[in-house]
């Protein structure tokens, strides 16, 4: 399974692509950070993000997209930009006909480190180890996106298989 993970942000949007199977180590395919200029018009920033994510989906042909779920932050302006970037990421996956799953930060932390309370340094260390990278992915947005992709391979892949099996059972078919 190939998963494109997105750590949404309007100024910096992390994107990570991994391949793997539940219960097995994942392999790095690529990672990126899509930047937009805070001085640019919002519509142009969202358009740039949309085009960039669409291009990455086309280039890497993932089986699924995993996006960090927007959670309440103290800075309303920051959460608005993150929510807008998240919507663009979800749309990029949907436009390509891919399943899109959102995960809370604590779900991703628990999947990757074993603790939903892990800090950024612990997350980056585990992503580096799990993907057997010679050095940590930088900036942190890229490491977070890779963590989302790993989380989906390990958790979402299992969920998808269970959902498919349940759907086949409802239809009365086996495969």
Describe the structure.
The protein has helices spanning 42-60, 76-95, 105-113, 120-130, 140-171, and strands at 2-7, 12-19, 27-35, 64-68, 100-103. With 175 residues, it is of the alpha/beta class. The protein has a single domain, classed as Nucleotidyltransferase, domain 5, CATH 3.30.420.10. Strands 3-2-1-4-5 form a 5-stranded mixed beta sheet, with helices on both faces. A hairpin with a 4-residue loop joins strand 1 (2-7) and strand 2 (12-19). It is globular. The mean pLDDT is 90. It comes from Micromonospora marina. Belongs to the RuvC family. Mg(2+) 1 binds at residues 7, 141.
* CATH class identity: Alpha Beta
State Rg: 16 Å
User: How does the helix and strand content classify structurally?
Assistant: alpha/beta
Query: At the third CATH level, what is the topology name?
Result: Nucleotidyltransferase, domain 5
Major β-sheet profile: 5 strands, mixed
Q: What count of helical segments does DSSP give? A: 5
Q: Total domains, how many? A: 1
Mean pLDDT: 90
**CATH architecture group name:** 2-Layer Sandwich
Query: Any idea what the shape is?
Result: globular
CATH superfamily: Ribonuclease H-like superfamily/Ribonuclease H
Distance between the termini: 19 Å
The string of secondary-structure elements, in order, is EEEHEHEHHH
SSE map:
Layout: E1 2-7, E2 12-19, E3 27-35, H1 42-60, E4 64-68, H2 76-95, E5 100-103, H3 105-113, H4 120-130, H5 140-171
Parallel strand pairs: 1-4, 4-5
Antiparallel strand pairs: 1-2, 2-3
Helix pairs in contact: 1-2, 3-5, 4-5
């Amino acid at each position: 399974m190939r998963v494109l993970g997105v750590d949404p942000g309007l100024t910096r949007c992390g994107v990570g692509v991994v391949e793997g199977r539940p219960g097995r180590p994942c392999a790095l395919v690529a990672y990126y950070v899509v930047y937009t200029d805070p001085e640019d018009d919002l519509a142009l920033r969202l358009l740039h993000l949309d085009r960039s994510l669409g291009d990455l989906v086309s280039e890497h042909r993932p089986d699924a997209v995993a996006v960090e779920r927007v959670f309440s932050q103290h800075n309303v302006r920051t959460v608005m930009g993150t929510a807008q970037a998240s919507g663009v990421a979800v749309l990029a996956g949907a436009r390509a006909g891919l399943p899109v799953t959102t995960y809370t930060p604590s779900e991703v932390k628990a999947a990757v480190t074993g603790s939903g309370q892990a800090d950024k340094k612990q997350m980056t260390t585990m992503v580096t180890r799990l993907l057997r990278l010679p050095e940590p992915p930088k900036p942190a947005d890229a490491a977070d996106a890779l963590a989302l992709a790993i989380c989906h391979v390990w958790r979402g892949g299992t969920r998808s298989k269970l959902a498919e099996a349940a759907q086949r059972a409802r239809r009365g078919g086996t495969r």
